[in-house]
What does this fold into?
Amino acid sequence: MRPVDKGTRNDSINPYQLALEPLTKKLGRYCSYCEMQVYNSLEVEHVVSISKGGDKHQWHNFLLACKHCNGSSNKSDKVSSRTNYFWPDKDNTFLAFDYDELQHIRPHSGLSQVLQPIAKATIGLLGLDRFPGSINPPTLGDKRYIKRNEVWALAKESLSDWYQMPVQEMIRQIIRTATGHGFFSIWMTVFKDIPEIKLALIDAFPGTAKNCFDQNGNPAARPGGKI
Ligand SMILES: [Zn+2]
It folds into this structure.
């Protein structure tokens, strides 16, 4: 999950839907959780649910979500505090999970025993591990897994192209493809051995938290975060 820096605002944003454009300007049109690029029905999402006492009109409680991460079978109305989950605007969520192309997103293998359950709870809250045939199959309308599959294939083809032609023009092409589809973490995983492409990805996806990565594009603990 891409760690993001959305900046701060202290004014009351009412109605809260007015935060959509400034948020997308900061973070791009990507779901903050599943990382999918979303043009229609990207929503201002309340991190702590309004029904559980979360601030309805304050920037600090906003992220962007697709309707499946924010939907009734997933996150909606379930979060009473930030404590028991990882959040992309507070933690280095890229360190929290492992991605692999068999559809799996899992707690990162190197997490401590204290952090493993937090990663697991976060995946469950957002339904990030839903795909047909899994123990958590997607709901009928939830097609996030299809797009995820497509992007795995695209990223692997792009890696193969890079090895054929490791030049600046290819980096630009790969970045155009990556930002046009989303799923930052898949691209970072596929290009894990190519620092120049990881750095270009960190730079190209708007609002990626730069303090979560070192000069080679490897993740580093986020100041003030749980991870
Ligand atoms: Zn989503």
Summary: Strands lie at 43-46, 62-65, 97-99, 105-107. The first helix runs from residue 20 to 27. The pocket of zinc ion is lined by residues 31, 33-34, 36, 65-66, 68-69 (CB under 6 Å). Helices lie at 20-27, 116-126, 144-164, 168-181, 184-190, 195-204.
